[in-house]
Design a protein that fits this description.
CATH architecture of the largest domain: 3-Layer(aba) Sandwich
Radius of gyration: 20 Å
Largest sheet: 7 strands, parallel
Order of helices and strands: EHEEHEHHEHEEHEEEHEEHEHH
CATH superfamily of the largest domain: NAD(P)-binding Rossmann-like Domain
Number of helices: 10
Number of strands: 13
Helix content: 40-55%
Structural class: alpha/beta
Strand order of the largest sheet: 3-2-1-4-5-6-11
CATH class of the largest domain: Alpha Beta
């Protein structure tokens, strides 16, 4: 039985990857940070399946603690390591740049060192980001497009990208970078713009809130479905040799387009409810990201399945159920 270790297991990608690997017959270990409250909501349902329970194990750890990561590597002895842990909110990285770099950049280095010093043939996946392209120098962006990061988060991810490549070339590690463009789902955190929109719109529909406050509506992103993208992570580690891959849909849509899709699905006019708040603008903006996943298609045989419109509908329908439950609970309390 193959053994996988996932950092960031309680996040959106971590939860989908865990489901995927369990179905593949893996034993899955996940690192979670110690907290006074549980943050395992995205993976709690997996413990309800008695078949999965013995193969899903959670351990305490932190990307800022290299000694702990080394100890876990020697204890678990994984075949594959997926580094998905990060302070992943771009806007927040401007407010917490030092923490972001410590967790996202140095955290990756600590994990690579833990793998290297274990002297085991571990396959490593690094969650790189399209934000590394920042102020893009060409459209679409490929594996050969130069990086121009425009946030502390993007700078940290660029550092991690190059360290992953360096450990591959210097020490012969099977280490891959997946340069994933924006990928969303009903499990996306509520502070990210797509989920903020679907959450706000459905609550407006259910008369639970009156306004939705957003930042730059003109920013364009290449949006895909997280459930599609985690398969690409796994495929990278199944190849004969390690490499780096762009994972994207090849389409670019603005925040306004996503907004229109969601509100029209709910038969609402977004212009009546949405207001622009300057607090949500970044100090330096990334205007357009659009990826070219031709290499992934050719070598991995990977292609996205869920369309932009289907993604917006999926997320809206899921949050409509949540908002409906909220409304019922509110009425019961009154």
């Amino acid at each position: 039985m193959k053994k996988a270790l996932i950092t960031g297991i309680t996040g959106q990608d971590g939860s989908y990857l865990t489901e995927f690997l369990l179905k593949k017959g893996y034993e899955v270990w996940g690192i979670i940070r110690r907290s006074s409250s549980f943050h395992t909501g995205r993976i709690d349902h997996l413990y309800k399946d008695p078949h999965d329970m013995p193969r899903l194990k959670l351990v305490y750890g932190d990307m800022t603690d290299g000694t702990n990561l080394s100890a876990l590597m020697n204890e678990i002895k994984p075949d594959e390591v997926y580094n998905l842990a990060a302070q992943s909110h771009v806007r927040v990285s401007f407010d917490m740049p030092i923490y972001t770099v410590n967790a996202d950049a140095l955290g990756t280095l600590r994990l690579l060192e833990a793998i290297r010093s274990s002297n085991r043939a571990v396959k490593f996946y690094q969650a790189s980001s399209s934000e590394m392209y920042g102020k893009v120098v060409e459209i679409p962006q490929t594996e050969k497009t130069p990086f121009y990061p425009r946030s502390p988060y993007a700078c940290a991810k660029a550092y991690s990208f190059w360290q992953t490549l360096n450990y591959r070339e210097a020490y012969g590690l099977f280490a891959c970078n997946g340069i994933l463009f924006n990928h969303e789902s009903p499990r996306r955190g509520e502070t990210f713009v797509t989920r903020k929109i679907t959450r706000g719109a459905t609550r407006i529909k259910c008369c639970l809130q009156e306004k939705l406050y957003l930042g730059n509506l003109e920013a364009k992103r290449d949006w895909g479905y997280a459930g599609d993208y985690i398969e690409a992570m796994w495929l990278m580690l199944q190849q004969d040799k390690p490499d780096d891959f762009v994972i994207a849909t090849g389409e670019s849509h603005s925040v306004k387009e996503f907004l229109e899709e969601v509100f029209s699905h709910l038969d609402l006019d977004w212009k009546k409810y949405v207001e622009i708040d300057s607090r949500y603008f970044r100090p330096s903006e990334v205007e357009l990201l659009q990826g070219d996943a031709s290499k992934a298609k050719k070598i991995l045989g990977w292609e996205p399945k869920v369309t932009f419109k289907a993604l917006a509908k999926m997320m809206t329908d899921a949050d409509m159920k949540t908002a409906g439950d909220e409304k019922i609970l509110k009425e019961q309390r009154q």
